[in-house]
Amino acid sequence: MMETPRTTYVRRPRSGWLDLALDELWAYRDLLFTLMWRNLTVRYKQSVIGIAWAVLKPVIQMLVFSVVFGRLANLPSDGVPYPIFLFAGLLPWTYFTTTVTSATGSLLAGSTMISKVYFPRMILPFSYLLTGLIDLALSMAVLFGMMVWYRADMVFGLPILLFPVFLLPAIVFAGGCGLWLSAMAVRYRDIHHLVPYLLQLGLFVTPVVYAVTLLPDNYQWILQLNPMTGVVEGFRWSLLGKHVTGWGWMSLGFGIALLVLLTGMIFFRRVERTVADVI
Amino acid sequence: MSAPVIEVESLGKVFQLGEIHREWSARLVERLRGRRAASAEVLHALADINFVVEEGEVFGVIGPNGAGKSTLLKILAGITDPSSGNAVLHGRIGSLLEVGTGFHPDLTGKENIFLNGTILGLRRREILDEYDRIVDFAGLEAFMDTPVKRYSSGMQVRLAFAVAAHLRPEILLIDEVLAVGDMAFQRKCLGAMKEVAGGGRTVLFVSHNMAAVGSLCHRTLLLRQGRVAALGPTDQVIETYIHSIDDPHTADNQGFVAFHERKPLFAHSPLLVRAARLVDDQGYPVTAARTGESLRVEVVVEGLNQFPSAVVGLTVRSVFDQKIFHFNTAMAGGFGSARRYSREHVRLEVQDLPLMAGAYSLDLLAFEPGVRLIDRVDGALSFDVVETDLYGGGYRGEAREGFIAVRGTCALWPDEGTP
Which residue from B299, B303, B300, B297 is spatially nearest to B269, judged by alpha carbons? Predict the structure, then answer.
């Protein structure tokens, strides 16, 4: 066996704001993937159709929303067939909501691990960011199928390669929200009651079931500051070729997502110091 | 060769008592008023701890419940931060604070090996390299594709220890894991721990099992009320521990553990048994007894004089809660026509204590034989039995081999053609 240089660990009262311990996070990357795998397998063990639920849920939601918002309420979809317009927005939105919900509960769900073993606690909420990506990838297959079905000529333009770029702010924003909420949920269990309502409200301030053009031109920026607006619009632009305006405001929205992640990491690190005593 | 591997310097840990939720609103008010309100009640779980562990040493940590043993281990493992002082550890740390941490009941044995291993800080590749040896050590080849929820608790422990034993840590922190699992496996675990220590690595071992600490540890630290009560060669420290007063939260300075703040057994039953303690032959309080010597329990009862035929008894239980033996005042001949008092001390002395070294507890009870149970305190006292040279030949018996210490003879003669 090779002699490796000794690592030295110092345990002392911590202070300071900007010690994010990213190197440690990197050292534990295998745990991140193992937990992602655990989240996924545990969710579908002893279920008959298993992972198919990941696809079925957004599809059913799409069908219901298409009837309610597309047919009955007749919401605008900027010239794109409503079901596909909706689905392209619903997928990143579902990714965001499921990830934030499960990340919020991640510290409490892992409380036995936290009180018995040391590992960077950020791994717990972050593992759900990856689990959500697997679900999203499966539903994307359905979306591509729909694209072929609706307008074959539109598929496989160059911008299609860019849709992962728009996934990035969704991951960043969901990660930031997950860190803030999971850290707060350790002390204040109220968060668990609050989060579903906040996410429900979020659906109204994100152009998922309607188009941004529903609002007068001079008010659209309010919507575009919401990082998820940029994500949803980016998806539609890259996948459906929809004309999109307001990139400036949406970039600012992505900046907000990054800010939420950074402050979330700082806040989480502070809570992490005593989490094992409190949980 | 021997260099300090763990250096602990004036380490302390403070816990805030009381409601946590109060904190933020209270703090806000304090800040608005520009001063700190009367500081909340705090508990010093650890205060001013200093010690150094050398490379290759097996270091024991003992002490009564609530003495801060687990807190110390959690700080060393990095699970929680100290409030003051510092600890420096040189080398890769493996901690085994509770076996099976992170096991998920729905995942298979194989999946859990990877989960458990990565939580403890291993890379997947390293686990893959060790996988066969882990499965082999646990002896569970046939169950690797079975969900862990279908495992017996013994099987879960075996799997968990197998993972930890193959971490190849330079410092191994262990908390009370040997209390579970069967004999053969416990031997295997002890062997693995000795091997870790033998390879120039260091073990810090927290336990209630005096026999295990005595046979494994070179030096031992005795914690009491969060402070270092003794530190030195294991035999001496165990000796100090036996003559120390039990749990500070329930025992007063005479060693009495009080029971008056409990719920009555039945709706209106009197709380006859008020307090109890263990004493030595001089009447001084102790927390342990010795195999083959006397176990003396002093019970304070109140109002027993109203039940002239009442009997006071004790039932000793193992760590697995099995009843081992019962002894009472009627067996000892009773008190005859002795004068009774409204509040009196009853002493029960069990002679030639037939218990192997280990941790035990006892229930106290008062009853009228064949009529009714008057009062009972389950788990009234916890105590250790410490090994003695019962057999004169230096053989050291432990409760792991069986609870009862028996004596006997053996003989030997040549075989003369047994069919």
Answer: B303
User: A91: which residues sit within 8 A by CB, 6+ positions away?
Assistant: A58, A136, A139, A140, A143, A235
DSSP code of A57?
A: H
Q: Compare all CA atoms of chain A with the CA of B97 and give the residue at the minimum distance.
A: A116
pTM over 0.80: no
Q: Please state which architecture CATH assigns to domain B257-401.
A: Distorted Sandwich (2.70)
Q: Would you call B22 an interface residue with chain A, using a CB distance cutoff of 8 Å? A: no
What are the extents of the domains in chain A? 22-269
Per-residue pLDDT of chain A (279 residues; tens, 9 = 90+): 344 556 788 888 877 666 777 888 888 888 899 889 888 888 887 777 878 888 888 899 899 999 998 888 888 887 788 888 899 999 999 999 999 999 999 999 888 888 878 888 999 999 999 999 999 999 998 888 888 887 755 555 677 788 889 999 999 999 999 999 999 998 888 899 999 999 999 998 999 988 888 888 888 888 889 999 999 999 988 888 778 888 888 899 999 999 999 999 999 998 888 888 877
How far apart, in Å, do the first and last CA atoms of chain B sit? 59
Mutual angle of helices A82-104 and A190-204, in 10-degree steps = 160
Beta bridge partners of B16: B42
Alpha helices in A22-162 (DSSP H): 22-27, 29-44, 52-65, 82-104, 106-109, 111-116, 123-150
Closest residue, chain A, to B126 (C-alpha): A30
Contact A116 B79 (CB under 8 A): yes
- The first and second tokens of residue B309, run together, are 């035929």
Q: Which residues contact B73 (CB under 8 A, 6 or more apart)?
A: B61, B95, B97, B173, B175, B204, B206
Question: CA B76, B79, B85, B88 torsion: positive or negative?
Answer: positive
Residue that has been written with the tokens 């980016």 in this structure: A234
Chain-centroid distance, C-alpha A114: 24
Q: Which of B20, B83, B120 sits opposite A278 (nearest CB)?
A: B20
Tell me which chain A residues have a C-beta less than 8 angstroms from the C-beta of B74: 115, 276
Question: How many Cβ atoms sit within 10 Å of the Cβ of residue B415?
Answer: 5
- d(CA A44, CA A52) in angstroms, rounded, equals 9
Whether the predicted interface score ipTM is above 0.85: no
**Is B229 touching A (CB cutoff 8 A)?**
no
Inter-chain residue contact B101 with A112, CB threshold 8 Å: yes
Judge whether B396 and B292 are in contact, CB under 8 Å.
Answer: no
Preferred mutation among A8, A29, A116 to probe B, highest tally of B CBs within 10 A: A116
Residues of chain B found within 8 Å of residue A6, distances taken between Cβ atoms? 90-91, 170
Hey, of A2, A3, A11, which one would you mutate to test binding to chain B, going by the most B CBs within 10 A of its CB? A11
DSSP 3-state of B59: strand
Q: Would you list the domain boundaries of chain B? A: 4-12+47-242, 257-401
Confirm or reject contact between B397 and chain A (CB < 8 A): no
**CA B287 to chain CA mean position, Å:** 13
CATH 3.40.50.300 for the B4-12+47-242 domain, yes or no: yes
Indicate yes or no: CB of B97 within 8 angstroms of CB of A6: no
DSSP state of B80: S
Tokens of B108: 């298979």
Task: Specify the pairing of strand B202-206 against strand B219-224.
Answer: unpaired
Encoding tokens for residue B50?
A: 């200093």
DSSP collapsed to 3 states, A17-54: CCCCCHHHHHHCHHHHHHHHHHHHHHHHCCCCCCCHHH
Tell me how far the alpha carbon of residue A224 is from its chain's centroid: 17
**Are the C-beta atoms of residues B73 and B107 closer than 8 Å to each other?**
no
